[in-house]
Design brief:
Elements: E1 6-12, H1 15-24, E2 28-29, E3 38-42, E4 47-53, H2 54-60, E5 77-81, H3 85-97, E6 101-102, E7 107-109, E8 113-119, E9 125-131, H4 133-137
Parallel strand pairs: 1-4, 5-9
Antiparallel strand pairs: 2-3, 3-4, 6-8, 7-8, 8-9
């Protein structure tokens, strides 16, 4: 059986700006699922962020619903695992350098868990965390 995939669809003001932001974090784009209003950001072999300019995003929504303003409200926390504390820092620091903002203080739970948070250019809240594999097994 093939592994299950996830496609997180996010509304963005500018697909070009959002795509450039995520490329600065080290992620690539899949051109086969991208066009002038959509970018498919490849996070892993099974995780993708579909960045859709707001009018296109709205075309997929249920009638009568509005797009949330992620700079004022939080509808979802997108959380990614990292292989190390250093990888958490690399991704979060790259996000800040690319124009993102810190969402909250780093999370430190002893020596077994560490995380960083940031908001992307459109205010979507992203978490990057690492857990000590020995703590997970124990």
């Amino acid at each position: 059986m093939a592994p299950q995939m996830i496609f997180v669809n996010l509304p963005v003001k500018s697909v070009d700006a959002a795509k450039a932001f995520f490329e600065k974090l080290g992620f690539s784009s899949n051109p086969h699922f991208s066009d002038e209003t959509t970018a498919c950001v490849v996070i892993s072999d099974t995780i993708f962020a579909m960045l859709l300019e707001e009018p296109k995003f709205k075309s997929f929504m249920a009638p009568g619903k509005e797009i949330s303003d992620a700079s004022r409200t939080t509808e979802v926390l997108v959380t990614l695992s990292a292989e190390s504390r250093e990888e958490c820092d690399r991704i979060a620091d790259a996000a800040l350098a690319a124009g993102g903002t810190a969402a909250k203080e780093p999370l430190e739970m002893g020596t077994s868990m560490y995380g960083r948070s940031f908001a992307d250019l459109d205010g979507h809240h992203w978490e990057v965390f690492w857990m000590d594999p020995a703590a997970v097994q124990g």
